[in-house]
Amino acid sequence: MASVSANFVCSRTSVRLPNQLWQMITSKSLRLATVGWGRTPGFPRLSSSRFQISCAAKKETVDKVCEIVRKQLALPADKEITPQTTFTDLGADSLDTVEIVMGLEEEFDITVQEDNQDNISCIQEAADLIEQLVANKS
Amino acid sequence: MGASTKPRLSGMQLQVLALYRGFLRAARMKSPEERSRIEALVSQEFRRNSSQVDRKNYLYIEYLVRRGKKQLDQLKSPETVGLASLNVEASQAKTS
């Protein structure tokens, strides 16, 4: 289609040629450019990978966290734990939360700083923090 | 003491939690059976205080935190091998 219109434009006067052709070229080339960028290890790839790391923790990390939480709080096996469950939903008070974080520290061999500890309220947050600390450590 | 909603734990609550954390970290350095004994004792003590002590009784809470810190320092020393506690039941009628 582009080639047809380009031919059409070519028949016009040379003054108008650059504008319309330029628009067509840019509209086509923009699409081409995005595909091209995606192939090279350039910006979109980098930002998307970074976005993934900060967005969600790995499944097995979340599962391990769930296991530890279950063990610490002595939950019955049928109790449902989703990554969004907060510790207080499971009946934990702040002392229990400290215990859970200590258990996680031991399991993953990390050290959680004081100010980070107070921000953890649900399982997803804990898993994210763990991922971040493990990534920083290695 | 339990700040069940996540926003803002008070400074005193944060101190208590930091103390609890300190105890758990110190307990890791002892032998395994001593460690479980320390953890059981400390968590029992903290929970009992959290339910029995009035939240507004700042003076008593500060005293407990100070005492806890001293006990923690003693526990941290490598010469200390364990922690034990003695429960004394004081009968109310005997006090003046």
UniProtKB/TrEMBL annotation, chain B:
Pfam families: Complex1_LYR
Swiss-Prot/TrEMBL GO biological process terms: mitochondrial respiratory chain complex II assembly
Domain Complex 1 LYR protein span(s) in chain numbering: 15-74
CDD domains: Complex1_LYR_SDHAF1_LYRM8
Compartments where found: Mitochondrion matrix
GO annotation, cellular component aspect: mitochondrial matrix
InterPro entries assigned: Complex1_LYR_dom, Complex1_LYR_SDHAF1_LYRM8
Superkingdom field: Eukaryota
Keyword terms: Chaperone, Mitochondrion
TM helices/strands, residue ranges: none
Protein family membership: Belongs to the complex I LYR family. SDHAF1 subfamily.
Protein name: Complex 1 LYR protein domain-containing protein
Lineage, uppermost ranks: Eukaryota, Viridiplantae, Streptophyta, Embryophyta, Tracheophyta
